[in-house]
Amino acid sequence: MTDAEPVRLVEVVVDAVADQVALLRSVAADVAIRGDFDLDAIEDLRMAVDEAAALLVGCAAPGARLHCELRPERQQVRVRLVVDAKPDAQVEHSSMGWQILTALATEANAEAAEGRITITLARARSEKITA
After folding, report:
1. Residue 4 — very low, low, confident or very high, per pLDDT cuts 50/70/90?
2. Any domain includes 92
């Protein structure tokens, strides 16, 4: 991104079903590519969004929609995913999916409130190694 470009918000809403996760994954990668992130950061963001979306699909109420917001910033991409949840559903922080997500993202958080579950995450640019 150049200094003149404003931060843009990308919003995608899909049915909260497993076969829609690939669409969110692709959009996340595209946002990072357009932000000129390196290949490692692009792939980490893509996989982190995949894990977050898959976790929420597992918690989703029947017929729910999965909302995904991606906000590219100069040094990172911030992502917020929200779904209407089944009663008593929550993201298990001990699950393999959560462990993978937190390993890939620079920041990650999950919270349940008012019948919804929200996962927020960020993936920063990779540090460039200079010789």
Report:
1. very low
2. yes
